[in-house]
Design goal:
- There is one protein chain.
- The model has no long low-confidence stretch (mean pLDDT 85).
- By secondary structure, the chain is of the alpha+beta class.
Length: 173
């Protein structure tokens, strides 16, 4: 089986982060929660109440949008659905490769549009991006990073490595 990569913008739920600013979300949620709480396999989990991302033989490089800006990114490798909603109404978890969680100076929609010209206005819904401008976008982000040293921010390599792992796991089945 061959996996592919998709690029997606995912809005961060307003109700969960009500009253918090971008810096708080970057530090407390992305850097502390997602990075520091990785399991033994290097995966972090983010519960959701409504599934906005489908994975069909692919992984996704997710750009997180909050308050009209892109504030973080990570490589999504799986979606785990619960058999039934939990007590708080969550219906599943997104599974991210914790080593790929990056925070950076917020990126406006206008800035993002220079790399992904077909992007639609930011809103409540997730949207797919054309990956053609991805390499240039990575170069743009690199000097803006907060939690990853510039020489360790290698999303193109992360994607290739994750695709190889997924193909290898599939071959073992």
């Amino acid at each position: 089986m061959s996996y592919s990569i998709r690029y997606q913008v995912l809005p961060v739920s307003k109700d969960v982060f009500e009253g918090e600013d971008i810096e708080q979300i970057q530090e407390e949620f992305f850097e502390d929660n997602l990075v520091e709480s990785a399991d033994d396999y290097g995966y972090s989990y983010c519960a959701f109440k409504a599934q906005d991302i489908e994975l069909n033989e692919e992984i996704k490089f997710v750009l997180f949008q909050f308050a009209g800006k892109i504030v973080a990114s990570a490589l999504l490798v799986d979606v785990d659905l619960y058999d039934e909603p939990d007590d708080e109404g969550y219906v599943g978890e997104y599974v991210f490769n914790a080593d790929t969680v990056a925070t950076f100076d917020p990126v406006s929609q206008e800035e993002l549009k220079t790399f992904f010209p077909k992007i639609e206005a930011f809103g409540e819904k997730a949207q797919l991006l054309d990956g053609a401008g991805f390499s240039e976008f990575v170069k743009f982000l690199t000097p803006r990073l907060h939690n990853i040293p510039e020489d360790e921010f290698t999303p193109v390599e992360w994607i290739a490595e994750q695709l190889a792992v997924m193909d290898e796991e599939d071959d073992e089945k």
